[in-house]
Specification:
Length: 290
Amino acid sequence: MTAYIFPGQGAQFPGMGKDLYESHEIARTQFHRADEILGFDITSIMFEGTIEDLRQTRVTQPAIFLHSVILAQIIKNFHPAMVAGHSLGEFSALVANRALSFDDGLRLVYQRALAMQKACEAQPSTMAAILGLEDQVVEEVCRQIEEVVVPANYNSPGQVVISGSVKGIDLAVEELTKRGAKRAIKLSVGGAFHSPFMEPARLDLQKAIESTIFNEPVCPVYQNVNAEPFTEPHKIKANLIAQLTAPVQWTQTIRNMIRDGGNEFIEVGPGTVLQGLVKKIDPTVSATGA
């Protein structure tokens, strides 16, 4: 059974999507439509901007969404049996399985980006990648730190990203290194995504999601907050709202998709990160790019 998976923030690169634009009429139509919806020329930024331009949250999230959704629209015989997306990628997955329209998905992604940027600017915070430790050890250390520090992304066995205050992340990195982490790397990000620091953004996005029409999808979406499949629009909405302050349970998501028959995973979007994570989670299944 084929599962389509969609990447999140961090997959961007200069020139992304230009090959799609030059090769497919539908891509040109969607890029021009995106410029109209967003009110700025994201097409030019994606094709001609620098990596610094693409690291701006208000640009990064719509850009990755656009690349992923357009790619899904031009895949031949695209009939997904199941979909999932890593963080931001969940919105791309929801357009791909027709729970959301292209226009509504892009509007929500842009509102999400602006809300997250605002939350980041209101209170300094950051993230760090922890490699080579059991999840339970990372969780234990996070609980012991007398600052806000939480697991944010369970990416694969032995790879957890933590999120929290600048001081808290520094303390956690120090302690996790003592506990035997192979690497504990502070990330160059705008703030503490998937943590309590995103609560103001969650409240802003909640209003937008609740006022948007979600349709019955053509296949289940396995959602980040609990790694389980959903097809009911009201449940999909609730999980999407909770996602901003909850950890991304990616390891659990892939395992549950395999449990339910997924044996071929196709990453739809820029980069190959998710393919690598799938292979680390279960090397017996196929993981390729679209």
